[in-house]
Amino acid sequence: MATPEQAKLDQENSNRKSSNLAGTKPDSSSKSKLGFKSKVNIKSTLSAWFDTKADNAGYNTQVDNSEGLEADESDNRINWVRVLPFIAMHLAVLGVIWVGFSWFAFWVAVALYFVRMFAITGFYHRYFSHKNFKTSRWLQFIFAFIAASSAQRGPLWWASHHREHHAHSDKESDPHSPRQHGFLWSHTLWFLAEKNFTTRKRRIKDFSRFKELEWLDRFDIAAPAALALLLYVVGSLLESYAPALNTSGGQLVIWGFFISTVGLYHATYTINSLAHRFGTRRFNTPDDSRNNALLALITLGEGWHNNHHYFSGTVKQGFRWWEIDITYYLLKLMSFFGLVWDLKPIPARVKQQMVGSK
Fold first, then answer.
1. Alpha carbons 299 and 305: distance in angstroms, whole number
2. What sections of the protein cross the membrane (predicted)?
């Protein structure tokens, strides 16, 4: 259920879009426009791979994109140039044919999967999106940078779209509802759509005041590029000075960056797609959210999605002792060292409502 603040924001957004789009006629022939955009400003879109504010990325500027508003909520068309890096990430995995396998590269890939998954679930999600705990300015940037190295855009973009999702979960304005647009859209296509390229700044004003987060959001390629470069340098040094590890610069890039990142992509995306389709429902929420133990394992606790949609104001997503929530365990551990604090607990009223439930 949307908060009074969210409801007010939604109304302002609706009024603003109505004003900006006055005189335009909606397309009544279909509920939404889905497909590839026929006319693309290739130069601007290519520039936006490196600077997301480059000429507004060649997107429709009929509305104030600095506020993160969409030109047309029904326009789900995809800018085909934006798809190319995403496809390239998957094709690069085939590089394993040439670089081969080593246990060192394998465990680097596994370690980077879990470290970056924690940065996404603990900080992109529970911190930037829901403010479930507090931390210092320097630590929020460090983990924002680590999460950004997963190539899932910047912290402000990620959190603003997630807040939009909670405000309209499984309704027409939900950015990635499988109920509204199907599995493929909710799993991948939604973030490739033109209307979802910009950060919804009116949803994330609280963190937009930090210039370093604005920079990271604008140049969201910086963190992934830095990680790939670091892996290449480390791998090349190990090839020369620790040949027993049987690794190389190219091998660490393929395994530690591309394979690890693609695995991270699709594990994260399952929460938007599969966690709204498969699992159990402890709470009768107005959306389709489910609790799924398998998804909770591969996403360090995010699979307890019905719990989360029922009450997103707690740092814990596993409401029962047996609901494994590794992200919470790690945040709790960090709190013992004073790195994070004020972790929001499950309120007594929610615990009372769970009495007798599975």
1. 11
2. 80-98, 104-126, 219-238, 250-272
